[in-house]
Amino acid sequence: MTSFDIDVPIARKDLKAGENLCDYCTAKCCRYYAFPIDTPKTWKDFDYIRWYLLHGQASIFVDEGTWFIMVMADCKHLLPDNRCGTYETRPQICREYTTDDCEYDFDSAYDKLFESPEQVQEYAEAMLPPRKRAPWMKELKKKMALPVVS
């Protein structure tokens, strides 16, 4: 991740002893989850990624060469004040998470970001050798006009 000048209530370095960075945060870490996925290499791989993006609030990003699926979904225990409603019994992954390298003052910038199946299709077409197309693909191609991001 790259640090940018973004508007935060208090700079991380300005926290007083005993203060918790979470007191100033909008709970970015509690609003999505992301997992690494295999780097797509074939038409079939890219077709699976297209399928992922047909479901809910999912996107695919590439960060430092690693591909991830990201699902935007608030934790069901997130309270209106951005605190954890089940703090004492929260899952182990939450217990291990620290604010040392959290996203509090980072504005995400990815090497690549795909938010629609059409973007993935266009990227695959630019990166892979041509394949034999079904007749209905010609109509789909006419509708696609998204930029290819490299």
Count of separate structural domains: 1
What's the main sheet like? 4 strands, antiparallel
Q: What is the H/E order?
A: EHEEHEHH
Number of DSSP-assigned strands:
4
Explained architecture:
The protein has 150 residues and is of the alpha+beta class. It has one domain (12-143). 23% of the residues lie in helices and 15% in strands. It is built from 4 helices and 4 strands. It has helices at 43-52, 92-96, 117-127, 136-143, and strands at 32-37, 58-63, 66-72, 112-114. The protein has a 4-stranded antiparallel beta sheet with strand order 1-3-2-4. α1 (43-52) runs antiparallel to α3 (117-127). The protein is elongated, with a radius of gyration of 19 Å. The chain starts with 31 loop residues before the first strand and ends in a 7-residue tail after the last helix. 8% of the residues are buried. Mean pLDDT is 85; it is low at 1-5.
Which terms would index this structure?
disordered N terminus; 150 residues; single chain; four-stranded antiparallel beta sheet; 15% strand; alpha+beta
